[in-house]
Amino acid sequence: MSSVQADKQTEEPLDLIRYQLDETVLVKLRGAREMKGKLQGYDSHCNMVLSDAKEYIYNETGEPIVKDCEMVFIRGDSVILISPIS
Amino acid sequence: MSEDKVKTGPSVFLSEILGQQVKVKLNNGVTYLGNLNSIDGYMNIVMDSTSEHVNGEDFVKTYGDVFIRGNNVLYISQV
Amino acid sequence: MLFFSFFKTLVDQEVVVELKNDIEIKGVLKSVDQYLNLKLDNISCTNETKYPHLTSVKNLFIRGSTVRYVRINPNAVDCTLLQDASRREAMQAAK
């Protein structure tokens, strides 16, 4: 790991996720899915727990399917991208 | 001759482009243009002022900060 | 190790596991290991009409890598504890 960035002063990418704890995030997932929810936990694999989450499943025909979930664990290997929602 | 040259390689490139404008292409074909904030050995990437492009140049969506999980990265290029 | 410990606190709770092949299984979490493989008891398929081949199965071992989501009872989760544990794990990883 340190081969790329040995300097500990500089920020690591995972720090961005840490700053989002207790904040609402957008998670883009494999299989044309997105999940919005409040970040309650994560680890280095991008396994995550979101609360008050909304899942959006996109298909060719216009409107996405929306599913609500109060508390959900997402396995990190499905994660493509994580972004804070302002 | 080659001894006074500092080490080269992918890691040098990656640290040189920190803070610069980059294009990141993912395995699924989507590209992201933005300002590179940080990167680690898994190729996890954080960018800001990012725009998402799906079919080549078609502009789709903008993000403030984004974290991209390294396993999805096909390449990173300086723009 | 964080989510291994997290799932251990959820043992005996009812969870819904959604797999990457879209099958959804509801059941009581009986055990978990470091790969987040799961053992469920008293299972039922929430979308049984679509996937009828698990109707006679009572309990199940799920390989962790096939899991997409696990839906959890929100009352079973201490959010502040989980947030703090995440920060602590991040600190440890940085060392």
What keywords describe this structure?
heterotrimer, B: 79 residues, mainly beta, SH3 type barrels, five-stranded antiparallel β-sheet, 5 strands, 9% helix, C: 95 residues, alpha+beta, 2 helices, 33% strand
Question: Explain this structure to me?
Answer:
The complex is a heterotrimer of chains A (86), B (79) and C (95). Chain A is mostly beta strands and 86 residues long. Chain A contains one helix and five strands; from the N terminus they run αβββββ. Chain A has one helix spanning 13-19; strands at 24-29, 33-42, 48-57, 65-74, 79-84. Residues 1-8 of chain A have low confidence and may be disordered. Chain B has one domain: Roll (SH3 type barrels). Chain B contains one helix and five strands; from the N terminus they run αβββββ. Chain B has a five-stranded antiparallel beta sheet, with no helix packed on it. Chain C has a single domain (2-94), classed as SH3 type barrels. Helices cover 24% and strands 33% of the residues of chain C. Chain C has a five-stranded antiparallel beta sheet. In chain C, a hairpin with a 5-residue loop joins β2 (24-32) and β3 (38-45). The mean pLDDT of chain C is 92. Chains in contact: A-B, A-C. The interface between A and C is medium-sized, with 26 and 28 residues.
Topology:
The complex is a heterotrimer of chains A (86), B (79) and C (95).
Chain A: H1 13-19, E1 24-29, E2 33-42, E3 48-57, E4 65-74, E5 79-84
Antiparallel strand pairs in A: 1-2, 1-5, 2-3, 3-4
Chain B: H1 10-16, E1 21-26, E2 31-39, E3 45-53, E4 59-68, E5 73-78
Antiparallel strand pairs in B: 1-2, 1-5, 2-3, 3-4
Chain C: H1 2-8, E1 14-19, E2 24-32, E3 38-45, E4 60-62, E5 67-71, H2 79-94
Antiparallel strand pairs in C: 1-2, 1-5, 2-3, 3-4
Protein name (chain A): U6 snRNA-associated Sm-like protein LSm6
Protein name (chain C): U6 snRNA-associated Sm-like protein LSm2
Organism (chain C): [Candida] jaroonii
